[in-house]
């Protein structure tokens, strides 16, 4: 579809759900009789469902894409809800300390196939800051052991090269030594790769071993740790943006807020005049 052809499969799935829901509500006359207010009414429906601001932003983008497509195919030019402003999500990402990361990854120590796979997965998530979808679908041919980097196809079909640390490279070699397949993490249940759910369970078990069982801690915490630890050690924000594959620097800037919060916390804890 026009405007959505470069989206990831996950984004397209979400867009499709919004399109179906939106069209169904119109069919049932749940959005009123004024087409110019369809987007506004749909946003009210989503707000009543108490969805996150990120989900509502995505829904708004999906519906605007649909209406633009309809217009491009000779349909009516409908109000795209350009005046609708959604609240920015101010929730900061969950961050693990360097010790927590080390202890969680070290949970997988055995030599059996599943343990090796999970250890390798966690190593690469933290070493290269990959999205979980990028990690599970990594191709063996895109891992350059001697050069120490991995070639990743990220959002929008854009490729980037990301360094891999020595420790992660050692585990990749150990795990894939007997592999002659296409994927680094092949699935035994399908002809492709392991699922995001499999990765989530591997991360959940490792985090539980260090006492973290709360909601909101999934594979992405290693990506967040990758970025925040680089920033704490002086890496340039633009470099981190490139490594993470963010198209907008504002997305990466959330980690500066974390650093500012940590600085403030340290000042309050240690400065003699911080407390009365």
Question: How would you explain this protein's 3D organization?
Answer:
The chain is mainly alpha-helical. It folds into two domains: 9-72; 98-267, Orthogonal Bundle (hpI Integrase, Chain A). The chain has twelve helices and three strands. Strands 1-2-3 form a three-stranded antiparallel β-sheet. Helix 2 packs antiparallel against helix 3 (53-72) and helix 5 (113-128) packs antiparallel against helix 7 (166-176). The longest helix is centred in the N-terminal third of the chain and has 20 residues, at 53-72. The model has no long low-confidence stretch (mean pLDDT 83).
How is this fold's topology laid out?
Elements: H1 9-27, H2 38-48, H3 53-72, H4 98-105, H5 113-128, H6 132-136, E1 143-144, E2 149-153, E3 159-163, H7 166-176, H8 196-208, H9 220-232, H10 237-244, H11 249-252, H12 254-270
Antiparallel strand pairs: 1-2, 2-3
Helix pairs in contact: 1-3, 2-3, 4-8, 5-7, 5-9, 9-12
Strand order of the largest sheet: 1-2-3
* Strand portion: under 5%
CATH topology of the largest domain: hpI Integrase, Chain A
Sheet bearing the most strands, described? 3 strands, antiparallel
Find the structural class using helix and strand composition: mainly alpha
How far is the N terminus from the C terminus?
Answer: 61 Å
Shape: globular
**Mean pLDDT over the full residue set:** 83
CATH architecture of the largest domain: Orthogonal Bundle
Overall helicity: 40-55%
Low-confidence stretches: none
Oligomer: single chain
Under the CATH scheme, which class of the largest domain?
Mainly Alpha
What's the total number of strands? 3
**How many domains, in number, for the residues?**
2
């Amino acid at each position: 579809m026009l405007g959505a052809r470069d989206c990831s499969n996950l984004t397209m799935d979400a867009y499709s759900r919004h399109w179906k829901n939106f069209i169904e509500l119109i069919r049932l006359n749940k959005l009123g009789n004024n087409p110019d207010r369809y987007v506004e009414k749909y946003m009210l429906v989503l707000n009543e469902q108490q969805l996150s601001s990120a989900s509502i932003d995505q829904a708004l983008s999906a519906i605007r894409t649909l209406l633009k497509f309809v217009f491009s195919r000779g349909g009516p030019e409908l109000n795209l809800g350009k005046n609708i402003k959604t609240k920015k999500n101010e929730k900061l990402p969950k961050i693990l300390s360097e010790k927590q990361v080390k202890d969680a990854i070290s949970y997988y120590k055995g030599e059996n196939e599943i343990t090796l796979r999970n250890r390798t997965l966690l190593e690469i998530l933290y070493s290269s800051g990959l999205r979980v979808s990028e990690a599970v679908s990594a191709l063996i041919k895109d891992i350059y052991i001697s050069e120490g980097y991995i070639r990743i196809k990220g959002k929008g079909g854009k490729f980037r090269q990301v360094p891999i640390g020595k420790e992660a490279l050692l585990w990749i070699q150990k795990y894939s030594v007997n592999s002659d397949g296409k994927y680094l993490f092949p699935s035994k249940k399908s002809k492709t790769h392991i699922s995001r759910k499999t990765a989530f369970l591997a991360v959940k078990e490792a985090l539980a071993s260090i006492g973290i069982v709360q909601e909101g801690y999934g594979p992405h915490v290693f990506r967040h740790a990758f970025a925040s630890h680089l920033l704490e050690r002086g890496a340039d924000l633009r470099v981190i943006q490139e490594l993470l594959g963010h198209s907008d620097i504002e997305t990466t800037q959330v980690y500066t807020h974390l650093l500012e919060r940590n600085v403030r916390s340290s000042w309050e804890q240690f400065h003699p005049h911080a407390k009365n």
